[in-house]
Give the backbone structure.
Amino acid sequence: MRLLIFGILMFSVHVAIAQYAIRGKVVDERTKEPLAFVNIRINDNPRLGVTTDIDGNFRYESATPVKTLLFSYVGYERKQIAMDSVNNPNRMQISLSQTNLNLQSVTIVAGENPADRIIRSVSANRKINNPENVRSFTYQSHNKIIADFVTNDTPTKGDSIQNRIRESFRGGYFFLTETTTERKYRYPNRSQETILSTRTAGFQNFTLPFLATDFQPFSFYGDHFQILDIKYLNPISRGSTNHYFFNIEDTIFQNRDTVFVISFRPKRGRNIDGLKGVLQINTNKYAVQNVIAEPAEPGLLNMKIQQQYVFLNDTQWFPEQLNFEISFGQIQATVDSSKDAAALLMRGRSYIDNVELFPDLSRSSFSIDQIILDAMANFQDSTFWNQRRIAPLDSMEMATYQFLDSIGEVYDFDRFTTFFEKFIQGKIPVKGFDIDFSKTFVMNEFEGWRPGIGLMTNERISKHFSVGGFFGYGIRDKLWKYGGEGVWTINRIHEIDLRVSYQNTLRETGRTALYTGHNSVYDFRNYTASQMDQIEEKAVGFGFRAFRYAKFNIVLNQTLVNPLYDYAFQSGTFSDSTNYQYSSLNVGLRYAFGERFARTSTQRVSLGTRFPIIHLNYSRGIDGFLDGELDFNKIEIRVDKSFTWKILGESKIRVDAGMADRSLPYGLLYTGEGSFDKRWMIFVPNYFQTMKKYEFLSDQYAHLFFSHNFGSLFLRIKKFQPHFTIHHNMGWGRLSHPEYQQDIAFQTKEKGFYESGFQIDQILKLNYFGAMYAGFGAGVYYRYGAYAYDRVEDNFMFKFSFTFSTK
């Protein structure tokens, strides 16, 4: 009873104190979109006010009368409202109009910019304010993404293209998806987010759910802030005052703290990938309280992000809401004999709640999967959703689900997600079978075009067993290729599988066992292959994942080799032999420390790692086993690593090395590291650009491939922003008993092979279906050292390059 009376008294005090309450929303006058983080001054008192939240909403309660509200926002005209003119103070909607002020005209004429001192304090406190430097945390989130067509100007006629599209979707949006998740994190690199529920309008089993962090980082404290495929220099990174202009636009007083509203943009003449926007910096630990940012130079896809932070438990600043907007290309239409245009606008909202700081989380409680789609995620009922949603669905959202769900069932939209999932794996699903690109679309210089097909059964027939095969006929070499394979998937989580296979096909000579992408239809080097061995191979393999980051593949095979070129191998055990047979045990390892994955019901997709990726392969040839004629040991290693520098771009390094412990037939040695071919002047990464394909032969080798992309650091002229890249490659190799290799030309590279190059990408950019730019460039590469040609001009090689980007 005492507790009840105390509660009533406290409620009465609260009511008495908060006699005056106002609520409302601030929007853009033209677009009617909500404006986040607008400063609202109460009764013209600089120490009395509130700020709109990330959705433009505001709320204020006071024991004294509220007479005036002054609204101020960077890039908008100030507006003052007299409360005696407001009909309903609990349902206010305030519209602000954009100003013509250009921030680039603001300059500092003397003395130190006071905003720079604040930003340096923010940079100095990045480590303590970064939520991902906390020992551990957990939270829940609700994510919603909506896509709709919007016009540039407010429609004045009811029959605009925007309204016609809306009518086509029965008053709903073009696209709508929701997810709810639970995330746990343990410093420094353990993170796991489980998707508890997902719903996408029109789909019954959507296996590609979206999260807020798919479009922007979780926090604003890294040296770079990545938006889509571009890494932008963070305006609060250390030394950012050398590259950004900051200006204090306003000052807000919140209790004992001061909040500085600071606009930012790249300084003139700074050729960086930079952002522009507004920061709200709280003097409590000099932390980011709110941020709005977008690329300073718009690309093909224009994106804006918003982040709002809250100070939890008087301990740590933590994200409370993450928003983004992406504007795609426009579509044109004629309405009432006049042209109209609409752009596809995608908006995302992520609300973070139920945050717990410093929970006890063991390292072993995390799997390698950073994102996990729960098996029941697509089948949660309305009760579950109503408990998890921050706000109920509005009328347009309900109309979207109702309309798209009805037509999605009729037209089976789920097959489109299945198709996309398979397509990124290099497959096309056709009912219970998958067409394998790598076995179906085959073309190279030796075979010409190889008409054929490769098929494997998929999960519609069995989730644990798959069988299939391929066949094709080379137009140029007039040879049939064929094979079959069976796979037993024992455990998907630990990637345990057992494989048996047979194939009668072609293999390029000298290809390293580390070459993991030789079946890729996207690797141009495959199309230039011109020296082949015909092989008949029987194999059984066993693959599994262990030690979190290690993937093993063990294969026992028997291979009969028939070189399709003039050649003979003559050694102590072979005499003028052309064909040969060997049996080998191969152990392959891929180790990527810190690698994270997204796991759905059908696949596991790598999200990458910031650490080096190591490939290792050991082959043991066994003489006399399964009629094998060769006894040997071969080992190869590859290390890949990339580095992102603050403003200088990105470096990539690859190191390859390998050795065989004795002389072997040509096809089992190392060659093919060159990519120069006068008929195909195309740049191929991680190959020697000035070396002919089969110019050198080795049984021991070491290669280094280095490139550094400066981006558009050196030249930016409006939309002309070519990227400059330097290359340096070097290689060494030796060959024991070169006299054993008969009737074939080659060199050895004991003295070292060297080349360097300069490349300019994106000299010309073409709009690729409104989604990205296809860039065309060129480079020149120079060969020097012991294996340089006598004439200087012969050492220069020119090649073309192709890139894809959203900017």
Observations:
- Residues 43 and 425 are 61 Å apart (CA to CA).
- Confidence is low (pLDDT under 50) at residues 1-18, 101-106, 154-158.
